[in-house]
Design goal:
The chain has 113 residues and is an all-beta fold. Helix content is 0%, strand content 49%. The protein contains no helices and 10 strands. Strands 2-10-9-4-5-6 form a 6-stranded mixed sheet, with no helix packed on it. The chain is globular and about 40 Å long. The termini are far apart.
């Protein structure tokens, strides 16, 4: 069974940092591109970042230069390092498998003073 379990969210002040993790199981993690998507209250899902199987990342314009996506294929884990967080980054963040209709439950990130 495919499972994606996110963690690492929380409440942080503007300018702060968080590192999100997504523990994957039930599929050959290293073979798939993975993405982070976020959804703010009352809004639709917003793509944040994708990393391919080789470790190359792409980013939405809104987070480029502040967020870094990475993966540890030995531990079947996806990461999102988020720096210089802004209130507009507040959302439920979840990981997805590119090309598959699978996502985790998500982890809440709240940026507020």
């Amino acid at each position: 069974e495919v499972q994606l379990v996110e963690s690492g969210g929380g409440l942080v002040q503007p300018g702060g940092s968080l590192r999100l993790s997504c523990a994957a199981s039930g599929f050959t993690f290293r073979s798939f591109s993975m993405s982070w998507v976020r959804q703010a209250p009352g809004r639709g899902p917003e793509w944040v970042s994708t990393i391919n199987s080789s470790g190359s990342g792409t980013y939405a314009e809104s987070v480029r230069g502040r967020f870094t996506i990475s993966r540890d294929n030995a531990k079947n884990t996806l990461f999102l390092q988020m720096n210089n967080l802004k209130p507009e980054d507040t959302a439920l963040y979840y990981c997805t498998i590119v090309g598959a209709n699978r996502r985790g439950q998500g982890t809440q990130v709240t940026v507020s003073s």
